[in-house]
Write a structure and sequence with these properties.
By secondary structure, the protein is mostly helical. The chain has 2 helices and no strands. It has one domain. Helix 1 (3-27) runs antiparallel to helix 2 (32-72). The chain starts with a helix and ends with a helix.
C-alpha cells in the first residue's frame, strides 16, 4: 500500500475519532459554557488537522515518487 493511501486512511480515521469524541462530549453533563468550550476546542483541533492534510499528503506523494525512483534505478 502506498504512503498516500496510508496517509489518507489515517487522517480519515483520526477525523472520525474526533467526530465521535465531539458527539460524545456534547452528551456529557455540564454547564452550557463548558459544552461550548469543549465543542470549540475539538472544532479547532479538527480544523488544524484538516489544514495540515494537504501538506501531509504532498509529503507522502513525494515519498512515493522517491521510492518508485529508487526501485526503478537501483544503485
Amino acid at each position: 500500500m502506498s504512503y498516500r493511501k496510508r496517509t489518507m486512511l489515517l487522517i480519515a480515521a483520526i477525523e472520525c475519532g474526533l467526530a465521535y469524541f465531539y458527539l460524545y462530549s456534547m452528551k456529557a453533563p455540564g454547564s452550557p459554557e463548558q459544552i461550548a468550550e469543549r465543542g470549540r476546542l475539538i472544532g479547532m483541533v479538527m480544523g488544524v488537522i484538516l489544514g495540515l492534510t494537504p501538506l501531509i499528503y504532498l509529503m507522502a506523494r513525494n515519498n512515493d515518487r522517491k521510492k518508485a525512483e529508487r526501485l526503478k534505478n537501483p544503485e
